[in-house]
């Protein structure tokens, strides 16, 4: 059964992004603090169609597995705009449904990534993603606002947070946008390497 | 080498306690949410010198290990006052140094728990705890304010947070009291059962 999930990096004090985000300053500049564990992995740079990273450990396997399980993405307009300027061709290797008010033709890339621009709401984006994903899973990619909408709307089956051992002190606190009254969580996974703890939860209603 | 540590329960959104704490309302009433994994364990109730709990799993072993490693405790006045009214005799089975302005004779209990009331500051309490602990470890027990003082003062070698899969939305955010500029963290442990993730960090300076 296809699952709907999100998979995000957080600081130990719960921030998913810093202040003053823009396409020129994605994530408010905190990506090196939160995502260092990814940047160290060859698997991460392979997906960016370049080389980099010194390591190929269980953290790299995890990166590959998340790409492999995902049959379709749903993305917010702001995240798309932050990424559009720098993502390489065919980063996602699956359809990406971008929720936006902008009317725009699909952006078909070489390979299997196509960005579709959805103007008629989250349920419409979800149905299209479900049809595309087949037996694979649907990833609600981000940003925070989009994940909150789908979480609070009852769409999310499970999620993983990658908790970096850093404190940021300011920015967007991820869990502040979650409606606390509508669900229960069960811890279904925890593992670590020195730069990160990977925690996975299933969501009950 | 004897270590200095703290070991606390947090909600997934980072709260160590709720609002309106008092001896009549310890932890602001959120203990059932944060500590359910402990309350399910026989080991927890054994230490309270009573019976309770349905389970005796790795979570119970963890409770026993934390008591076993601890040779002395340092505690804040407020936590002591919240607990004094309800703790059973000899709960801690080691000396407990309570930082307070109250002048009071040591409270010697049956067994090996003695509460000492320290009026001349955190360094004095620490030195007494170190002398008592011998080769065992020193636990900075709580509350949050006391842990912040010792963490920010550079005393803490490692810590464990037990993250419950619940969101509280308000109360005392534990990491807000940590001075972010003075240390680095390494993730050295992560495990889980359905009701909790146990994350352990070492502190570098």
Automatic annotation (TrEMBL), chains A, B:
Example GO molecular function term? 5-amino-6-(5-phosphoribosylamino)uracil reductase activity
Annotated GO biological process: riboflavin biosynthetic process
Bacterial bifunctional deaminase-reductase C-terminal domain residues are 3-186
Its domain of life reads Bacteria
Q: Which Gene3D superfamilies match?
A: Dihydrofolate Reductase, subunit A
Q: What is this protein called?
A: Deaminase
Write out the coiled-coil annotation as residue ranges. none
